[in-house]
Amino acid sequence: MRQSSLVVVANRLPLDDNAAPDGACEWRRSPGGLAGALHAILEQTPATWVGWGGGVGPARDLPDIGTLRLRPVSLSEDELAGYYEGFANSTLWPLYHDAVEQPVFDRGWWETYRTVNRRFAEAAAEVAEPGATVWVQDYHLQLVPQMIRELRPDVRIGFFLHVPFPPPELFMQLPRRIELLRGMLGADLVGFQRPQAAHNVAQLAQKLLGARGADERILLDDRVVLTGAFPVSIDVAEMRSLSARPYVVNQARQLRHDLGAHKRVLLSVDRLDYTKGIEHRLTAYSELIRDGRVKVRDTVMVQVAVPSRERVESYRGLRDRIEREVGRINGEYGRVGEPAIHYLNQPFDRADLAALYQTADVMVVTPLRDGMNLVAKEFVAARREDNGALVLSEFAGAAAELEDAFLVNPHDVDGLKETLLHALAADPDDLATRMKGMRDYITSNDIHAWARAYLTALHESRVPAV
Ligand code: ADP
Ligand code: F6P
To answer: Sorting pLDDT into bands at 50, 70 and 90, what band is 24?
Structure first.
């Protein structure tokens, strides 16, 4: 077995098993923030990525991607249901996102979650060379840090949570709260998107595990666990160079023409997820049309919603509701050859996304809760001129960084309507100042800066407990 000095452990491999039209198997980059972010930094670093390849049944061997080795972990049909769709995405995901959808507590899922976490931990322990760094990602694998510590006390263990960590009163609802907290605190460094998360965890560790210490330095048993905020980012240079390619620029021009050259374009790009606030946004937009404050003849909305977790009931229900509402809005307000909303429920490649971002007058990113939201940063990176407005939810981690966006509370539909109008009518000089501010920020806080900051802190961890 080949071993590496850096091992990343994440639920998904950065590639998805995707059936081609002729039935052959082809691989594509997984949608979602985590794979995109880590893919960018690992392509040129000797490392092994342990993760699930997307299908069920025995995992196939996979070729390296540059210097990155892939170590697939298999899932059976039952494990997919209990671990991924069940405990990870029907219990933890809604609970960690402010319970905007009711979390499901199904006692049967826990054992499967634990079994699968152990499989990931064993795979990581196998491919880590002596003294290696093992970096575990996200809520799917919250038990893995402590499991690796037991299997391989010689390695340095990092854990990064890409999603929000909830307030203590919500976390306390979890039937398996002690195991989940202890599992995560098996790491030497636990990273979050926002400082508040580290504070919440320190409080819970005191209450549930009898830990001592402060927010960024938790004393648990005879160890120090460091915690901190490391806001994740994107590969700004990649998005910028993609956006400057002549065929992307031409595609953007063509899209503008197809949408109506004289029209103002509102654009949203999300995974089709109930945390993303798509329904609130559609309500706001349709009311603006209803009230005559926005006219379909001079404004159009584009909603890209990439299919996600489609076997989970709440996601299927959401998709049905959104598609009904888009149909209703177009039926009531559209005209022949002139829909009010273009709805695209399909994955796009990076170049298509770069072109789309360039067509928007207003990018509307209004999640009800989001750990970070990389789409907001991608929009800024893709803009080649100092124009275009970003309407951004206060409840996205990105809002703490992109202060020049038009910030909004998406739960307040009237406030959202006013902010959309404000962004549509903004003065070009104001937009230019805002765009420059956001561009400067992401340029110096890109994905490489994030990885450097996290890995440096991890290498300086393992401090004595005195
Ligand atoms: P999350 O991690 O919850 O999915 P983020 O906004 O952080 O949310 O990341 C979403 C990622 O998925 C972005 O990198 C974005 O470019 C990508 N993405 C969104 N929509 C699509 C799509 N239709 N096709 C391909 N990738 C998409
Ligand atoms: O960022 C949160 C996250 O759950 C990532 O871990 C994941 O890659 C992404 O959203 C997409 O979700 P999924 O892997 O369930 O398709």
So the answer is: very low
Distance, CA of 91 to CA of 98 (rounded, Å): 12
Ligand nearest to the Cα of 366, by number: 1
Residue 209 phi, psi dihedral angles, 5° rounding: -115, 0
Q: What percent of the chain has pLDDT over 70?
A: 94
In sign, the C-alpha dihedral spanning 199, 205, 210, 211 is: negative
**Is 262 among the residues known to form the active site?**
no
Q: Show the domain range for 125.
A: 4-232+448-459
Alpha carbon of 367 to ligand 1 centroid (Å): 13
427 is catalytic: no
Would the CB of 304 count as within 6 Å of ligand 1? yes
Q: What is the CATH number of the domain that holds 32?
A: 3.40.50.2000
- Same domain flag for 375 and 298: yes
Residue 465, in any domain of the structure: no
Task: Please check whether residues 190 and 253 belong to one and the same domain.
Answer: no
Give the whole-angstrom CA distance, residue 182 versus residue 210: 11
pLDDT tens digits for 42-62?
Answer: 776 789 999 998 889 988 888
Q: Kindly name the residue from 162, 188, 199, 270 that is annotated as catalytic.
A: 162
| ipTM over the 0.90 cut-off | yes
Rounded to the nearest angstrom, the distance between the alpha carbon of 378 and the centre of ligand 1 is 9
Atom 27 of ligand 1 has which residue's CA nearest to it?
31
CB of 174 within 8 A of CB of 95? yes
Are 205 and 248 found together in one domain?
Answer: no
Prediction pTM value: 0.95
Exposed / middle / buried, residue 331 (Cβ in 10 Å: 0-12, 13-18, 19+)? exposed
In three-state secondary structure terms, 113 is helix
Within a domain: residue 191? yes
> Which of 118, 110, 121 minimizes the C-alpha distance to 87?
110
Question: Residue 376 Cα, ligand 1 centroid: separation in angstroms?
Answer: 10
State the distance from the centre of ligand 2 to the C-alpha of 33, rounded, in angstroms: 7
User: Strand ranges (DSSP E) for 30-138?
Assistant: 47-52, 68-73, 128-137
Find out whether the beta carbon of 163 lies less than 6 Å from any atom of ligand 2: yes
